[in-house]
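Quick bug: Outer membrane efflux protein output formatted oddly.
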Amino acid sequence: MQMLIKNVLLILIVAVLITTSLDATQQKPENKGTSIQQLMKEREQILQKLVDIVKEKYNQGNSSLNLVFAAERELLDAQLASATNLRQRIVIRELQLRLAKDHEQHVVQRIKQGFDSREDLMRAIANRLIAEIELLREKKQA
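Here's what came back:
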């Protein structure tokens, strides 16, 4: 009998904890004046600073061009996420394609110098193809 009471109490405690947890996750967060657009703009600003820092380090010989490409790609992705119309999206997709082509050429040069592998080139080509596909998709909507 005591075992049954302990099991029932344990089940009740677990049920209360689950209910309390679900209630907490379903509550809407308080709006403290921060909108999604503000957060996206802040993200773009931070990523622009990252690009500037990585480029400066690269120019000083303290970073690789691959890190510059990665930072620029991340910034363009953030800009694409906050684009408000098709024209902006197409311009950003064109910049992404230009960046992907530049990165692909950089990898080709690094292979010739013995620094990168064929796998790196395959990834760069695949990324360029994705950029071309996405640009064509955007243009198709225009």
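Actually, after a second look the formatting is fine. The chain is about 80% helix and 0% strand. Closing.
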